[in-house]
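Can't paste images in this forum, so I'm doing it all in text. The chain is below; anyone willing to post the predicted structure tokens underneath?
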Amino acid sequence: MPREEVTHDLSSGQKACGKCGSFLSQIGAEEREQLETISVRFIVKKHRRLKYACRCCGETIALAKGPFEAIEKGIAGPNLLAQVLVDKYGDHLPLYRQEQRFKRHGLKISRSTLWNWVRLSACSLVPLVEAMKQDLLVVGHIFSDDTTMPTLREPTPENRGKQAKKNYMWVYTGPSKENKKFPIVIYNFAEGRGSEYPVAFLKDFTGYLQADAYSSYNPLFESQEGLLAQCIEVACWAHVRRKFFEALKANPKSIAKEMLEMIGKLYKLEQKFRDQALTAEKIALKRQKLSKPQLEEIHAWLVEYAPQVAPKSNLGRAISYALSHWKALIVYIQDGRLEIDNNRSERCVKGVVLGRKNYLFMGSSRGGEAAATIYSLIETCKQNDVDPLAYLADVLARIPTHPNKQIHGLLPYHWKPPLLRDEQTEKVA
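Text version of the structure:
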């Protein structure tokens, strides 16, 4: 980080010895560092395009090219646009609060103007998310989850007085390449939670799909007309554990504690594999040797106690859930690339949930679609340790003139900061 040095010296009168009157000599200095901030400063960039003409014949007039703009003829520069996007979708600051903050700095920028900036920025960023989707659909292993997203209805007479619609934000995540390199997170705004939405999004995907056993994914796991199923279901042990935890919470003396201890052993094995940094092949072998016997013990416990507990009790529901999804719960031991639970996608949902608590609802379906685009880029930046503010500021300035064939160079997991990019260009030259 940049440093600013401030030197604190004695006054002239203090530099004399109090006993003999001699001048004091400097023998060193004590130093400490303090983190400080510089208040936000807004500037106006005036772009002057010089114009030239031929004074001899008067036939030629030449005008210097101006900068390419993130929003054509818009007053907001790419850095300001990036700040607005990250503030809302990265740090969960609604537009009305941003409007108030601008006002404190003497700027009158309405919410409608801010929304227009968001909408137009999202439109220019859509090609990036489409390119990310193509990378995601070929990895062979995708995690998925969803959460509600209240959305206001269109302001028509028939909708007057009606409450906001319950729309949904679906999330799909996974690595872009093998060995879990370059994570990708894509959000998809939808008006419902039916099977048509994941089926449409994943129509070109084949491989492992890890989700929460929600029935809308079932068409992807079913074979049709003698063909193999499009996806292999991988269930989530975190969901199983959660149900037994609820049973134990309702009855502290419940035998659910035994199941929680056995599931805990599975997780300890997974932690051990991660700490050893094993390859996918070695993890698969270790799971067959160590995790499989533990799973067999869990299954025997479930079969033993299933007829002994009330089916509608918390414990009965937990046992029934585990047994009904047992086939999908043990798939993860077959491939070392798979994970024991679906927590990867659930963590991605948390950002949307936090934002929803602040802005409460989407103003329209267009707002939901714009949010999905921006959420996808910001969360993918975070997953790849990229500063979303620096990324969006750079990309919004470059994307209007960037060749479509080279769009992958602008994706968060391929993007390089301008300084690093310039250094590499100089080395090539």
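The chain has 14 helices and seven strands. The first strand starts at residue 51 and ends at 53.
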